[in-house]
Task: structure prediction
Amino acid sequence: MTLDEKEVKEQPDIKETVAGGGAAAGGEKEKEVVSYWGVQPSKVTKEDGTEWKWNCFRPWETYQADLSIDLKKHHVPKTFLDKFAYWTVKSLRLPTDIFFQRRYGCRAMMLETVAAVPGMVGGMLLHCKSLRRFEHSGGWIKALLEEAENERMHLMTFMEVAKPKWYERALVFTVQGIFFNAYFLAYLASPKLAHRITGYLEEEAIHSYTEFLKELDKGNIENVKAPAIAIDYWRLPADSTLRDVVMVVRADEAHHRDVNHFASDIHYQGLELKDSPAPIGYH
Result:
């Protein structure tokens, strides 16, 4: 018995299979999980009958971005909380500009690691609130978690474009640890402040992606072919480029801007989110 055969024998949950009964592409073996519980992954195909290759999202979760959304809308801060949210976000932009400068690929990647946090925190806290009060959320739990997932897909896309260095990965740990806990406490203290902060963060994201597009148009950043994951997720044409990807991501950020400013406005009117139907699928 060889060492490899011994390792396979000692791990009965894993069965090695070879595609087509012969050597797999590149000589690599595929590992298939054998489940005692009878849980089998579903076989999903595209409309043309070809196999769907993404496990992180399914065809019914894809969509075509609405590029007609107004990118210039801005919530003018009037109250103390609004001004506090606005200048907090503006102050965060300075160190980001200094660190990344014009490396917009890495900047987008870092931005998405932060942008995916508010929806998850808000959805989680609303979920717990719904359980405590035995009441519906008006769809807002799903809407906020949908936002978080959409932002995470932005990150998965830009990971194919910008390869982060070790110190940038380390920075993600630090920033996420600080921002998650700070936003969690802010949402507990004042949901209307938390959503306003997110709204202004999305406005800054729109600005960053607009600058990204300018650099692409000037030729300072190579307009490479769009990653395959982006083509399937946003239902883009097969010949799409990085510029097309940035366009749809920017449109997503504009929709998230609207949703969070809307959520904050609901609280400012003395209502709760459950009092207004959530804009599920708005992006």
